[in-house]
Structure formats: C-alpha cells, structure tokens
C-alpha cells in the first residue's frame, strides 16, 4: 500500500514489550534493569520510555520481532516445554501525510500474544512457576471481565484491574477495530481449555467499536521530522546565499584593485622623467605592492571563511539526508505488475465483495422474516396435521431448552473447576506465607520484627510491599554470626529459650 501511494510520506516505527509478573519490560532493550511505567494522556495510555525502531520494509519489522522474541520469558511445564510466562505486545505506529501538506494521519496496530490460561493440576507448576501462573490467570480474568462489561454495555469498564487491560483499553473499547484469533486443541485432554477459549472468543464477538480517522494529532514524530527538515533546508539556503555574497564581494574587490592599478600606471607613463619623478615612481610602486599584499591577505581570509561555510553546509546537508532517509516515500520501487489500473481493479473487486456480503446478509434476514410469517399465517386442514406440526415445534423448543441447560451446566462446572484451582493456588500461597511467618517469629529479633511491621507499606499500583525508611542494613554490611553459649551443647533460638523458661 505504501509503495502504491503517490506523493505521500510515511514514518513507520515498531516497539515490543512484555508483561511479566505485572511488570512491563522492553524486549528491544534486554539489558535494562528498570521496569517501564504506564502514563495516561489525551491520546490514551502510553509507555513513555519504550524504545522504538524505525522500519523501512517488512524485513526490518520482522527482524525487530525476531530480536524481541529472543528476549521473551519462557519456562518449562508439564504441558509445554517452552511455555510463555508473559503476555507480549508488538506495537506498530504509522504516520502519513501528503507531500507539501501539514495534515498528519496516525494509525496504530497492536499485535498481542496472550499467554494461555493454566491449570495447576495439569502444568504441575510450583514455586516461581506457580506465581507466574497466578499472575497470568489474574490478567486473563481481568481481560474477561472487561470483555463481558463491554459486551453488556456496562457503564463502568474495569480497565484498571491489570496492566494488560490498561494497555488494551484503546484496542477493546476505543477508536479501533479488534480481531481475536483463538488457538484450540483437538485432543480430548484439552477439552476444558478449548471450551474456555471458545467462550472467551464468543464474548469478544459481542463488542462493537466504531473507528474514525485520527487526523492532525499533536504527538506525531512525522511532524517533528518535517519541522526539522524545513529548518535545515532554510539554514542551508541561507549559507548558500552567504557563500554567493562572499564570492561577489571578492570579485568586486579584485576588479576595483585591477582598475586602480591600471589608472595609476597610465598616469605615470612618460618619455622623460626627472629624478623627483623617479622617486615618485618608486613610491607608487611601493604602494602598489602594499595594495597587492593587502588584497592577498583579504583573499586568504575570504577563502578560509568560504571553506568553513562549505563544511558547515555539508554537515547540514548530511543531517537533512539522514532525516529524509528515515521517511518512507510512497510511489517508489513499484513493481511493474502493480500499475494504477490494477490498483483501481482491486478497489472495484473489494467493493463488489462488500456488496455481495451485504446482499447475502439481507437475503438471510429476508428468509427468516418469511419463515416467521409463514408460521403465523399457516392454516391447518385437519386436527391431526395441527397436532403433528405443533409436536415438531415442541420438540425443537425442547431441544433448544436442553442445549441451554447443558451449556448452563457446563458453565457451572467450569466455574467450579476455576474455583477449585483458585483455592489450590490460595492454599499454596497461604502455606508459603505461614512458612515465612514461622521463620520471622523464630529467627528474627522482636525489635526488628516490630519495626518491620510498622514500616512496611503496600503499593496498590505496583502490588508490592516496600520498607519506608532505612531500617535494614546496607548490602555491604555483613551481619556477624552470634557466638554460641559455651554452657550449652548447641546454639538455641530466642523462641526456644523462652519456651524453656
């Protein structure tokens, strides 16, 4: 499409991030230790410090994706040897404007790879893998709640329940088109997962979005590039004018000097010269030499200034070429097969296909209306015929009722299974909490424990505990091991000594 567009400038940028344990990570900067943060602006939810790469072709974009895939977090489970332990989002941003115009149009494409919902009984996840699975399931549950609220047109949409739903706020309920691809397994072993995925996708089908064009947004890189290119062109033109003026001044000075020398030489010519005249000639010759020397000095300075101007102009031209190279221009490198007529033909074919699709939908609606009308207007020739027809209708209604009951029962079973899985996860986390509390109660001094409880704060946004103050020792200070009581056979904790007393 970009190659076919005539007199258009495009700027294409790609970014790649993952959501691991409710933390945002830049997959194009794997060595970065700081996690990214979300910010809300007029244009929606953005990630300020996310690295983006300018792309000029599809191959460049695929290289960016392959580079990010190498840095994704994966792990081993009983169901998958290379299981994704995070949700990944590949962002493509395209800006376009006509040549010579300041109106900029912006479009975004978000490709989301959701990690699969996992059951602990099948994956065998423990310890760190169990924590990852709980975060994955929580994000998917939040996404399901958002989809349900959008499908039911609820006044409140819980976007802030997770970072995944906040990032997908524009994709789900904003100015966008949304396509969901459901991956299912044909085996009986994956029946529950397949059923859950299909119901998930069925709920997403009920979401209705009406996208409109984003014209002339404020935060566009293309506008910045155009502004900088215009400034560079202005500077280059000014420097070129300055070079021309220096050339003109140099030529005018040279012409004036040559004319003056000629006039003086004509006046001083005579057949007979006196001694005084000879002395005057010597003085005039000295003046001519001094004038020539001054002219040469001025010429050297002018040449030096001219060379500096040319070097500065060359640097500006190189920078201008670099900025213009970042833009993808339409109407270039087009294959011979993609002519203007073929482009118009494809547009006509797409319009015909859209028209046929509308005709099929209208025909189906018409058939349904005719069927319902025939059922209402149908007359019966005998009581037996009426009984048979109503019996068939009753069987159809009964079959629909049984199907709805079965679906309701399946939903209840699925809800119970999810509840049992959550209870198992909760029990594992409670066990881990009790173990940590047991260690604190028996091996942490009472005064340190009290300070720990009073200074520990919980961050709702990051969902983490942190210590408010420098109560703990710094990392370079090593706590010495307490000396055992020589009167006892082995060291004992404070709790054990207290129990003995």
UniProtKB/TrEMBL annotation:
Residue ranges, compositional bias (Acidic residues): 277-287
Domain Kinesin motor positions: 1-207
Biased composition (Basic and acidic residues): 261-276
GO cellular component term, pick one: microtubule
Compositionally biased region (Basic residues): 244-257
Keyword Chloroplast: no
GO MF terms, alphabetically ordered: ATP binding; microtubule binding; microtubule motor activity
Cellular compartments annotated: Cytoplasm, Cytoskeleton
Coiled coil: 394-432
Keywords: ATP-binding, Coiled coil, Cytoplasm, Cytoskeleton, Microtubule, Motor protein, Nucleotide-binding
GO BP terms in the entry: microtubule-based movement
Region (Disordered): 239-295
Family that this chain belongs to: Belongs to the TRAFAC class myosin-kinesin ATPase superfamily. Kinesin family.
Protein name per its UniProtKB record: Kinesin-like protein
Lineage of producing organism: Eukaryota, Metazoa, Ecdysozoa, Arthropoda, Hexapoda
């Amino acid at each position: 499409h970009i190659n076919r567009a005539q007199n258009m400038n495009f700027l294409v940028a790609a970014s790649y991030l993952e959501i691991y344990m409710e933390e945002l990570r830049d997959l194009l900067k794997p060595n970065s230790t700081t996690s990214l943060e979300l910010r809300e602006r007029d244009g929606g939810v953005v990630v300020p410090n996310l690295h983006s790469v300018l792309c000029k072709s599809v191959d460049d974009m695929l290289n960016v994706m392959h580079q990010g895939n190498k840095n994704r977090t994966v792990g081993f489970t009983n169901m998958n040897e290379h299981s994704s332990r995070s949700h990944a989002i590949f962002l493509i941003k395209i800006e376009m404007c006509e040549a010579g115009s300041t109106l900029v149009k912006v479009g975004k494409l978000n490709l989301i790879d959701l990690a699969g919902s996992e059951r602990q009984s099948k994956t065998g996840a423990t310890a760190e893998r169990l924590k990852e699975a709980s975060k994955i399931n929580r994000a998917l549950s939040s996404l399901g709640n958002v989809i349900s609220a959008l499908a039911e047109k609820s006044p409140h949409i819980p976007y802030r329940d997770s970072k995944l739903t906040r990032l997908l706020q524009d994709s789900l309920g904003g100015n966008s088109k949304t396509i969901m691809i459901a991956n299912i397994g044909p085996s009986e072993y994956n029946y529950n997962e397949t059923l859950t995925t299909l119901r998930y996708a069925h709920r997403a089908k009920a979401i209705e979005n009406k996208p409109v064009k984003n014209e002339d947004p404020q935060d566009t890189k293309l506008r910045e590039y155009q502004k900088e290119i215009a400034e560079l062109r202005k500077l280059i033109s000014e420097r070129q004018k300055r070079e021309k003026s220096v050339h003109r001044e140099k030529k005018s000075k040279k012409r004036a000097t040559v004319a003056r020398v000629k006039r003086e030489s004509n006046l001083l010519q005579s057949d007979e010269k006196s001694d005084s005249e000879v002395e005057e000639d010597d003085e005039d010759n000295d003046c001519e030499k001094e004038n020539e020397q001054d002219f040469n000095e001025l010429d050297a300075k002018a040449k030096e200034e001219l060379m500096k101007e040319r070097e500065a102009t060359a640097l500006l031209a190189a920078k201008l070429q670099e900025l213009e190279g970042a833009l993808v221009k339409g109407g270039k490198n087009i294959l011979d097969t993609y002519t203007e007529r073929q482009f118009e033909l494809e547009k006509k074919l797409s319009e015909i296909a859209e028209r046929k699709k509308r005709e099929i939908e209208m025909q189906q609606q018409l058939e349904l209306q005719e069927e319902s009308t025939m059922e209402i207007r149908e007359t019966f020739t005998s009581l037996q015929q009426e009984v048979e027809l109503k019996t068939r209708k009753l069987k159809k209604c009964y079959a629909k009722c049984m199907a709805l009951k079965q679906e309701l029962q399946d939903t209840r079973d699925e809800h119970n299974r999810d509840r049992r899985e959550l209870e198992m996860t909760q029990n594992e986390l409670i066990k881990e909490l009790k173990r940590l509390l047991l260690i604190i109660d028996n091996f942490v001094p009472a005064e340190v424990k009290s300070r720990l409880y009073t200074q520990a704060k919980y961050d709702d946004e990051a969902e983490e505990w942190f210590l408010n103050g420098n109560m703990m020792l710094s990392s370079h200070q090593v706590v010495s091991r307490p000396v055992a009581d020589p009167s006892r056979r082995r060291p004992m904790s404070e709790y054990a000594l207290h129990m003995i007393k």
